[in-house]
Design a protein that fits this description.
The chain is α/β, with parallel strands linked by helices. The chain has a domain of about 220 residues: Rossmann fold. α1 packs across α8 and α3 packs parallel to α5. The longest helix has 21 residues. It binds uridine-5'-diphosphate.
């Protein structure tokens, strides 16, 4: 069994994927410079995989240093490329920072895969490539919409770069995974969502209010054309999402792909509103949340959720967890995570 190089392996989805790969008999190594993760998370990962995590603490925009990983590990047979800047509001105010990081590190990885004969690549994309789609649920064939942020545009551009790469090198195989809204944490609470920058996502904000780090949650908009007026998203448990990467590596290594660039949506296919998410959190955890109905947040779309036929029938991936599992594990993690910064 060769190695799987996981870039951004100490980040939120990357760390859970390393654990899932390990649990399924793969041999993951990480490349992560802790630009938005705590070094201590490696202890949680190492604990779960039962051995010290191999992590290369380098900036993947540095081609020489990136190449050194491939030279040192000639047995890499697949790369999962997570490493990216992911803060939507920051990407709007600092677009060049996002284009430079997210596109240069991708091109460096592609160059290295070509040079060092790594034929299997998984790329982290996002449902934000669909923009404000009128077609719901969105399918992989739904065209890109107008990007709502520079972050979203880096994902669109990343996908286009990969498409051209796949045309130029037909013997390289890529799976592009478009994530909906990842949330929750590993059931052990040894790893979870722990960004260094302030959280902007709904579920970690809910748990931060519940634990008292924030005074209250503002529901951004209650006049959307949805069943209760609040926005609808497709929340996907991070452990299910992590497992989709293991399935994608297996899919490529077993040569199950029809084309050399396959795209899959990763969501559960069901939309949950902001108010329903709050209610699920309160019900499952027996906590009353301090929240207030507020104005719309600029740039938000009313509703988006995934069409799941391709990920179910072609990738063979079936998410097992629902919104209740998500809010339960997110709350367990919130109560546990202080060790990371202590
Ligand atoms: N949201 C909210 N209050 C918050 C944070 C988020 O009402 O403090 C809403 C947000 O407006 C959106 C949904 O929760 O409708 C999901 O937002 P998130 O940032 O988690 O994901 P994204 O907008 O990227 O889908």
């Amino acid at each position: 069994m060769g190695k799987t190089l996981v870039t951004g392996g100490c980040g939120y989805i990357g760390s859970h994927t390393i654990v899932d790969l390990h649990d399924n008999g793969f041999n993951p190594v990480s490349a992560d410079n802790f630009s938005n993760s705590y070094q201590k998370i490696t202890e949680g990962i190492s604990d779960l995989i039962g051995k010290p995590l191999t992590n290369y603490d380098i900036d993947l925009c540095n081609l020489e240093k990136t190449e050194a990983i491939f030279k040192e590990n000639p047995d890499i047979d697949a790369v999962i490329h997570f490493a990216a800047f992911i803060y939507v509001p920051e990407s709007v105010t600092s677009p060049i920072k996002y284009y430079r990081n997210n596109l240069i590190n991708l091109m460096n990885i592609l160059d290295c895969c070509k040079k060092y004969n790594v034929k299997n690549i998984i790329f982290s994309s996002s449902c934000s490539v669909y923009g404000n789609s009128k077609e719901l649920p969105v399918r992989e064939s739904t065209p890109f919409g107008e990007a709502e942020s520079s972050y979203a545009r880096t994902k669109q551009m990343g996908e286009l770069i990969i498409r051209d790469f796949c045309l130029a090198y037909p013997d390289t195989n890529v799976v592009i995974l478009r994530y909906f809204n990842p949330a929750g944490s590993h059931e052990s609470s040894k790893i979870g969502e722990a960004p260094i920058l302030e959280n902007t996502h709904l579920i970690p904000i809910i748990t931060e209010v519940a634990i008292g780090h924030r005074e209250k949650l503002i529901v951004f908009g209650t006049d959307y054309p949805t069943r209760d007026g609040s926005c609808i998203r497709d929340y996907i448990h991070v452990m299910d999402l992590a497992h989709a990467h293991t399935k994608a590596v297996e899919f490529l290594l077993e040569g199950k792909n029809e084309k050399n660039c396959e795209v899959f949506n990763l969501g559960i296919g069901d939309g949950v509103s902001v108010l329903e998410t709050i209610k699920a959190f309160e019900r499952v955890n027996g906590i009353q949340l301090n929240y207030q109905l507020g104005e719309r947040r600029p740039g938000d779309i009313a509703a988006i959720y995934s069409h799941t036929d391709r990920s179910t029938n072609i990738l063979g991936w079936l998410p097992k967890r629902n919104i209740e599992d998500i809010v339960k594990s997110a709350w367990a993690w919130e109560q546990h995570k202080k060790w990371l910064t202590s």
